[in-house]
Amino acid sequence: MKALFVKTPGDDPELDLRDVETPVPGHGEALVKVSSAGVCSHDVAIMRGLLRRGVDLDVILGHEISGIVDAVGSEVEGIAVGDAVVSTLTVFCGECDRCLSGHEYRCRTGHGLGHGVNGGFAEYIVLPERCLIPLPEGVSVEQASIVACPMGVALQALKDVARVRPGETVLVTGAGGGLGIHALQIAAALGAQVMGATYSEDKLTLLERFAPGQVILGGELDFSELVLAFTEDQGADVVIDTVGSAVFYSALRSLGQFGRMVLLGEVEGGRVSFNLTEVIFRDAAIRGSSGASKAHITQVLDLILDGKLEPVISHRVPLSDAKDAYHLVRDRESIGRVVLVP
Length: 342
Known about the structure:
Elements: E1 2-8, E2 14-19, E3 29-39, H1 41-48, E4 64-72, E5 84-87, E6 90-91, H2 97-100, E7 111-112, E8 124-128, E9 132-134, H3 141-144, H4 147-161, E10 169-173, H5 178-189, E11 193-198, H6 204-210, E12 215-217, H7 223-230, E13 236-241, H8 248-253, E14 255-263, H9 277-280, E15 285-288, H10 294-305, E16 313-318, H11 322-330, E17 337-341
Parallel strand pairs: 10-11, 10-13, 11-12, 13-14, 14-15, 16-17
Antiparallel strand pairs: 1-2, 3-4, 3-8, 3-17, 4-5, 5-9, 6-7
Helix pairs in contact: 4-5, 4-10
């Protein structure tokens, strides 16, 4: 089968599409023919060499995976050949305290797909049955590739970490990206008043669909000033920052009293330094969030079926042209998600 590897990371990485042996499913496993695999900023950070911790460079990238079950091993009962499935983000044990409490993505013995074990930038992947969720009718296999990340990741950040309540004001930075555009929709589905910040003028029209009249274009004027203007100097109750260090200060200044700021992404691999009083005298909380559980994935599927969440995929790129997908994401030329199609 064909599979994608990073041969030499860097701003202009050397990617290697290799012929490797198609894996064979073992006990409790399934072989999935990959239909679609989302390209996350996490993947791009690995390609650029910005993210190295825990990364095996001789691993097939890709953690956003959907496809069709092609074969099953022994004692697989919940899925069958021909089923359309979406994968979790981590190969987890299902037995440790974290798995049993619904935090499978932080399994004590788990391995992140495309990080510690082979991922979905390939024609096939073998995964344990417990890491696959059958798709309901009404959700296409292509849409499903972005259900866990970015959609499930955004849902966890908003619902479980920020604990968004109806009527609260939620600001999403990087609103045109994969995390951002779905976080806008999920915040609205939770009953929040949403605002989206972007530096991409060409994304404004589509973003207006999800945050009518509340899309902020950054540029000469710091977007925090516009947030304060929109909220009559109250600031946002919740800030979902999908960009990180590049907009951290503006995001923090946008936060209101007793506000909650959730960090979901770090695009540039940068550092921040700030005055702690900015947090103390806001009585604010800053938290990080990553991953999504099987429960979040199921909830996202329900939101799609209910018409409250629309998967946004802007580009479909053949696996052989993965470098094009890299540039689309790195240069922020896409809106929503770019997916690779083997």
